[in-house]
Every structure is written in structure tokens, then in C-alpha cells.
Amino acid sequence: MLPADLRIARVQKTLRWFEQDIPLLNMRVKDLSAERQESARRFAAALIDKTRAELKKLLEERPLDLGDSQHGPPCEPAD
To answer: What's the rounded Cα separation, in Å, for the pair 28 and 9?
Structure first.
């Protein structure tokens, strides 16, 4: 299992990807029917909400390690 801070960093990165993709999503679905556009937007919004909830849960569960707070968040491995 990944350390808590690494998991938090990955979820934060994923959340940023989802949030930054909204304008691109709107461009990708513009040729679809209004119903399908709305369905895609609802799905994206639900995914963002679920990711935010996961981030909140991870932050609440994170152990308080005061001795290591000076080092900041962990480095994330390259994709």
C-alpha cells in the first residue's frame, strides 16, 4: 500500500486533471445531442465529486507526523 502522503498527492493530481478537463470535455461533446452532452457533464461532475470526497477522506485519515512536516509533500514518481 502507498504511503498516505503519496496517495493524497496522486488524488490531488487526478482532481486537478478532471477539473482542468471541463473546457475540453465541452468541446468534445459539442457535436452530441443535448441529452448526451448533459449526461457526459453529469458523469464528469460526479467523478469530480467522488474524487473530492476521496481526497477529503484521505486528508482526514492522514496520520499526523509532526516530526517530518519540514520536508513538505513527498516527491511523486514520473509518469
So the answer is: 28
Contact 40, 32 (CB under 8 A): yes
Please tell me the distance from the alpha carbon of residue 61 to that of residue 75, in angstroms, as a whole number.
Answer: 20
- Alpha carbon distances (Å) from 17 to 7, 24, 34: 15, 11, 24
Residue 62 in grid coordinates: 492522514
Q: How confident is the model at residue 67 (pLDDT cuts 50, 70, 90)?
A: very low
Cβ(19)–Cβ(69) below 8 Å: no
**Residue written as cell 441529452?**
35
| Structural domain spans, the chain | 4-61
pLDDT digits (tens, 9 = 90+) for 12-59: 999 999 999 999 999 999 999 999 999 999 999 999 999 999 999 999
